[in-house]
Every structure is written in C-alpha cells, then in structure tokens.
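Exercise 4. Each item below gives a protein and its sequence. For each, produce the structure-token representation.

Item: YeeE/YedE family protein (Sulfurimonas aquatica).
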Amino acid sequence: MESIIKMFTTVSNANNGSVWLVLFIGFCFGAIILYSRLDKFEKMAGFMIFEDTLVPRMAMTTVALSSLGFYFLVDAGYASYSVKPTILGGLIVGGVLFGIGLVILGKCPSAFFVSVSEGRVDALVGVLGGMVGGAVFTIAYPFIEKLIGPDLGKIRLSDLFGGYDLIIVLVLSTVLLVTAYFLPTINYVDPADEIK
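Answer:
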C-alpha cells in the first residue's frame, strides 16, 4: 500500500501541467480513436492477419508528428523529458505481456477507455485487469526489480551518433511519414458483418 501512495504522491508532485489540459488532450485523442474506428476489434484483428493497414498507418503518422512536435516544444523550453533507463529484461517481459493482452482483447490499451464509453464489457474487463495488474506490479516491484536484469543506463540515439538531435528526429519522422503514405490502404471487413 505504501508503494501505491508513493506513486500517486510522485505523480502529483511532478508538476506536469494542468489536469484540465491533460483531460482535454485525452478527450481529443479518444475522439480521433473513435472517429477512425481504432477501438474496434475488427481493425486490430485485420492488422494482425495483414488484411488492414489502418493501425500501422495511424501509428506511424502519430509517432512521426508527435516526435516533431515534442522536439520543437522541448527545444523552445515549453516541455521537458526524462529518458528512462534501458532494462532489457523488463522491456522483453513487458513487451511479451503487452502483446499477449493485445491479442487476447483485440485492442490497444489506449482504445480500452473509448470502448468502455461505448458500453463494451470486454474492454471493461481489460481496464480492470490493467488496473489490478498495475497495482500488483507496483506492490511487487521491489522483488521484481531484482529479476528484470541490469540497468544499461539512459540510451538515446543522439548519444550513439554524437548529437544531431534535430537530424535524427527529422530523418525518423520523414521515414515514418513516407512509409505511412505509401503503405497501401486496405480495410478489413469482418465476414460476419457482410452477412448482416
């Protein structure tokens, strides 16, 4: 319980801006997910069987534009970031668990809340499971920390290339945007929907 209280205290003391601004951005993000139908199981299932390209195209576009915007906000002094340490064991285990959850529920975690707002019970189970899992992880972290492997430090691409932050952001964003643009548009239609 002490770990959970510490987590909430740390977050509230981080001074990351207005809660209302965060809520507004969250509502905008949810509206985009709802409008593009990324909260639908069929979209994720279509992506996983290579019969729908909306998910990768949206993801690439989002990462590219967010990277550019965030870089310029940091450069102008309006935002800051902290690079998290690279712990390969934790990344591998976390990635596997994330993938398993994605396949079982057929949704990305960011789409759960949109689906819950539509009344989908499967998404509610996913949200509750995520909250319980997060609480268990927070409580068990002192024990898990010893098992997830060594801390390799804060690794950034700009450290590997000796600087050039802007060039790295521009190149990666351009590659993602060009790939998203030229990726063929394929929309998966669930055969069950065609029968109706």
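Check: The longest helix spans residues 121-144.
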